[in-house]
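COMPLEX REQUEST
Ligand: iron/sulfur cluster
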Amino acid sequence: MPKVLFNIWRTNSSGGEFQEYKTEITEGMVVLDAVHQIQAEHANDLAVRWNCKAGKCGSCSAEINGHPKLMCMTRMSDMPEGKPVTIQPMKAFPVIKDLVTDVSVNYKIKKRIKKFKPRPPDAPDGTWRMAQGDIDRVQEFRKCIECFLCQDVCHVLREHHLHEKFAGPRHMVYTAALEMHPLDTEDRTRDLKDGHGIGFCNITKCCTNVCPENIHITDNAIIPLKERVADRFYDPLMKLFRKFSK
Amino acid sequence: MAGQETHSYDVVVIGSGGAGLRAAIEAAAAGVSVAVICRSLLGKAHTVMAEGGVAAALSNVDERDNWKVHFTDTMRGGQYLNNARMAELHAKESPLRVRELEAWGAVFDRTDDGRILQRNFGGHKYPRLAHVGDRTGLEMIRTLQDYTIHQKVDIFQEYTIISLLKNDGRITGAFGYDREKGLFKIFHAKAVIIATGGMGRIYKISSNSWDCTGGGISLAYHAGASLIDMEFVQFHPTGMVWPPSVRGLLITEGVRGEGGVLRNNKGRRFMFDDIPDLYKGQTSTDEEEGWRYTQGDKNAKRPPELLTRDHVARCIMREIKEGRGSPHGGVFLDIAWIKEKISNAPEHIKRKLPSMYHQFKELAGVDITKEPMEVGPTTHYIMGGVQVDADSQMTTIPGLFAAGECAAGLHGSNRLGGNSLSDLLVFGKRAGEYAAKYSRETTHGKINEDEIKEISTWALAPFQRGSAGVAENPFQIQTDLQEEMQKLVGIVRLENELEEAIKKINALNERIERVSCGGNRGYNPGWHTAMELKHMITVAEAIARAAKERKESRGGHFREDFPQKSDAFGKINICIKKDPAGNMEVKQIPKPKIREDLQQIIDEMK
Ligand SMILES: Cc1cc2nc3c(=O)[nH]c(=O)nc-3n(C[C@H](O)[C@H](O)[C@H](O)COP(=O)(O)OP(=O)(O)OC[C@H]3O[C@@H](n4cnc5c(N)ncnc54)[C@H](O)[C@@H]3O)c2cc1C
Ligand code: SF4
Ligand code: SF4
Ligand code: FES
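STATUS: Structure written out below.
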């Protein structure tokens, strides 16, 4: 079986650099397998974050040949033949060590989003009724594994570092899941506009393109949320209507 | 404390899987101070991988279901070694816990009249598993996570506990390090809840995530707590077998629940060839009837593919051994065939089993709506673990609680699918409630400085050993352990192989004295593994010793040299404890008495 050359980002006291490793690739291997093999054979202290190795936990996000991906779902057989494979940490987040980044900002942003607030139960036994057709969309959003690849690729965060002003695609998906939840009664429209900066998104769809769960982040989450914001704050007719109906 | 950060809480929860988060929520609701410590990031614990569903007798789909039926199913599945009180509490409380998740924002699949939909699963008499496609675990953990972050709970992510702290026979806290910097931390606590999950990664072929090294079971053991039922490991019948790098990855039982069938290379549905007596009355002998069952016909009996996991796994092993297996050493699991029955089969399969479709497409290049999958058994779950009181989840050490997969009792010798997620909720809640109560009635114990010094020295030793000569690579030892466990303590067990396993494990134990690591303390997987090995080896030894002690076959434990069930062993649990000299002591203890009214329920539903 062939040996493949890897260029892996290693941090050191002066920042970091790519280091070369060679390892043997066997049938069906994914990039994370190769990283583990390198770790076991050559670099015990090579830092990599992973949990499930099944594309379910969203821990192993990195940039493979420049593309934001899950290492455990990227097959070696899909890499261009005869070329080295480059692996580096996600660019939009501070590096902790080697391939591991500090994604804690995402947990902070999420906490700022108003929590789920259900209407009173529909039935005396404390349960609710919801039609499957009414929850399909929300279930799409709830597939999110919080890999933060969409946050990584979004230029507002990646190039302009506006983490404080723009909540980012993951959190738009999260907000959409709450806003479109049939039981939810909270209103997050003003927050979307002000605190979470939905206006920063200019619908480039880069986030949608990298989502390993194939969530239609832009079309299904962000655009409908933008419409809600527009209806509320920018549509003069709606404004008038609201004034009178108060 | 010199040099170490100390955090002080009433209740410290180790683990942020379903059990840990549910425990933390409950303890916080009781008004005590709570910390959750987890080795991974929040929301990424192994629970995220659960697929098929959470078992609760909501009776939304079949009104004949109730807690008594669920209770009886659980006891039968565990072949009556279960702690009946736990099985009772579990069956009674799981519907409440599932509905509560809905109130916290979970979005389960729906019935036509808008209630929570339930699906069939092995060993459950009626459709009982609330689910979200095949990503129920994700739904559960995200719901608990998003709820927890708005409660008064402090969360320490990527912190690993390496020892519990004790003084004068009671728990005083836990000791560990943060992954980022590798600095030691003391968690001073009145009560500690272990919710660290399972141990699949001590085997080579496993469905479990990185996190599942049995850490908490070993922490409890070394602190002096009793373990029970460690011989009962569940091998899930359907793991992926090809390609090699994904060997063991789970294929949810939901595939069979939706009508998937098992065939050997002759095309025969071999599950019809061996139906155990205990299940004869409720299992179909007719293919057509089996199909109708999966499609919700209440008068049909279930197909033999949905027999309990231990049995299905052994039937698959038999087919493979006798030369009727698939090309890569498994058997065939076919869901594509349902196109003979329903018109939009490919769409139906993709909607019902989205992650299975995805998983095979991405990782094996197989389209499950067109071709059969190749499957074989994989290490999946441990029924055994820390012995706990049924009501409070307190271990044999005052102030130490355990809940979730690391605790034992509910499942007896074999767990039914779906009964783990419900276990996490029911007993996670109870652990949180009783730990909070306990912490209210006590004060902080005193931290023993000598204990801290001893653990720190042990933890840092791998750095001191250098890499010369006899030094051992931690990853190599881990691989060796996984190979031995797979070979010698797997699905089919034998006295002499178990003896050999114990010898091999002891030899590994000596090797870890020489394990070394390079680099520095910051996010260093080599060092982390070096420390983890002790816990993995402890758990491996407990499994091997318990398996050697139980000279019969029951549930997840199959002894080729004692293939039958024995009445004598049906009355005991095997209990493992550290003796004063530090050796592993193995004892047979009488299983807890079954209350008369519960026994009556079992007898009535036989
Ligand atoms: C692929 C798969 C599918 C499954 N599907 C189902 C299903 O459909 N239905 C069902 O009922 N069950 C299912 N199960 C079983 C079920 O998922 C697990 O039993 C359950 O999730 C265990 O939850 P837990 O809370 O006990 O532990 P886990 O979710 O494993 O969490 C353990 C936590 O402890 C932490 N931890 C561990 N050790 C330490 C330490 N030393 N220091 C600090 N933190 C530590 C980890 O970081 C983690 O946060 C499935 C299992 C697998 C493998
Ligand atoms: S569509 Fe919006 S959120 Fe997505 S990457 Fe582009 S700017 Fe960012
Ligand atoms: S929306 Fe998609 S890309 Fe973004 S965090 Fe979730 S799963 Fe990852
Ligand atoms: S390790 Fe879980 S998504 Fe890759």
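REMARKS: The beta strands of chain A are 3-12, 15-24, 61-64, 67-70, 85-88, 95-97, 100-101. The longest strand of chain A covers residues 3-12.
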